[in-house]
Amino acid sequence: MKIKRVKLKNFRRLEEVEIDFGQKETVFVGPNNSGKTSATSAFKLFLKTLDFKIHDFSVSKISDFDKYGRGEEIELPTLEMDLWLAIDPDIEFGRVWSLLPNISATIEEVGVRIQYTISDADKLMEEYSSAFPELEGGSRAKSLSQYLSLPSNLTRHYTTQYFTLEKDGDDLNVHHMEADEAKKTLSSILRIDFVDAQRNIDDHEASRSTRLSQAFATYYKMNLDQAEVNEEANRVIDQNNENLNEHYEKCFDGLMGILKSLGVPSVNDRELKIVSSLSPEVALKGNTSLLYVDSNHSHELPEAYNGLGFKNLVYIAIHVSHYYLQWISTESKRPLCQLIFIEEPEVHLHSSVQQTFITNIWNIIGDVAKQENEQHNIPQIGVTTHSSHILDAVDISKVRYFKRCYLDGEDQDDPGVLNASKVLSMMLFKPDRKSASGNNVDEKEVLDFLTKYMRLTHCDLFFSDGVILVEGAAEKLLLPKMIEKAAEDLKSTFLSVLEVGGAYASRFAGLLEFLGVPYLVITDIDSVDPNNNRKVCQADLDGAVTSNSSIKFYLGKDCIAELSALSSDQVAVEDNSGYIGFQRPTDTPTFGDDVKMYGRTFEEAFIYENIDLFKDGKLSCGKELTDDPAEVKQTVFERVKSDSFKKTDFALEMAASEVDWKVPSYISDGLTWLAKRLGVNSIPEGEYNAD
Question: Is beta strand 25-29 parallel, antiparallel or unpaired with respect to 399-405?
Fold first, then answer.
């Protein structure tokens, strides 16, 4: 049996989401405060504790409580989890028969709904009115939601109900179950375990400096053979616990071997050693120590003297091994399915360890399964992470992206707090974005490219508020300073900057639009002779066309005169989800009011828009510039396209310069658009004009 998917309704910021699970690992990613932890907490609350609080209801539902408390005719909110499980009916029918509304049908999945709902609405209002009677004017000292936030009030008036779910075409039939029977059935088929993010393995408090020792103690107590307590044990103590230490060494040999497969300790690290520090009666119950041993120097160090990353990795390994052993060692009615959640495993871990983390977790499980001869019983793993390095080693189809969004019914165009989230399954992603000219893309080629790119560059776009796709290294190097000059408010956002060149920016269109992440493309007009598209030419040449495939993909035009005439609204694509920034003709007052310069690349545009600084020698492009605009245009064009011109060196010089240069207008306009799109701009009305 495996968990196939779960649907949550009205739970925290997950107003109504569906999350599908892979056969092995499923990785939850997304920006901070996007609902990843809420999704894991839902499993703990619905399937374990049932200890709900008023704040577990979505923000939009809190007002419904208050409306009901004021006497409005409205249904009191419920919390719901719909859980769907894939089953093998030939093997697992006996355990799940109570979840099957129609036992004569051939069924490969079963569904159950857990609903937290009001038990007696009239009694709730009676007690609420008694506790906070109406004041003059009809108000009360506390709203109904505030009343339910008081200790025990919610649990006294709300109860948990269970239902079986049956698909009938597109319809869903719901059948009530007895609560006791439902709980018994769920506990017999599901085991959910958690390695929480708050692992408290830091060294700042003495009480936390023995967390690994305690973890080893629990592992010993729950999974390993115990030492006999007798006279021989007392003799062991008298002999400095030597025999008992040998006992631990033998018992922990398998676990230590698993840890070594993680590279813990590495060839240059001390060995791990468990030693007894008291009597066998209380051994490994808070009275043993984990030591780091250098056998060459016969030197031992206590647990607190090793790195946090080292401890974090060992801690996770111990707990995953422990949970898995507990599951497969269950002798009577072992649950059919185990799901282990690991929250933010990257804490304190070096990037190279993060990249191999999931592989190592499966190695741990595989080693334990082999030792216990249980290779056919493998759990599902859920990982929440902010680490692009962990994503490097994960198939993109296993990623579930948590996207912050507005509450249902809120104005999507009105900047404000994003109190809800959607969950997008990358298993459903297809890069089927058509070009503006209507041409289809090669989906397999694009998907292969995206997968390889993200693995090579540790791509962090899954954690970003917005994405900027730049032409080359020069733009990327100068981008932080350009943001500071042109749209400083963007510094308060989390931006992913990808260097993709002019040819590949279009390949991100489908992905970014699928994720709903606003993106800015900063690219070059790349003018070429219309009669010879391999020959570069100045951008203002009559009839010049662009060779930039991304511009043609997004905007469906190649004539530079037509592209230059597009307004800011016309270079915003797909319902304002993206903006295509490229060079435009710019005024150069130093040569006269009617003289315009048109750069074909970033470097040309930068020089033209800072022409006075280059003419006066405050900045340098490697050539002297005269007062003749035609001569300057030719000089700059030839200089920038020459082999001796190093674009990266040019960008570094501009970045290091203390001269107050101007950001090219096509970039400043794009950055301003992105700031407005993200709702963080403070640019005075009327100053934004990309026409």
Answer: parallel
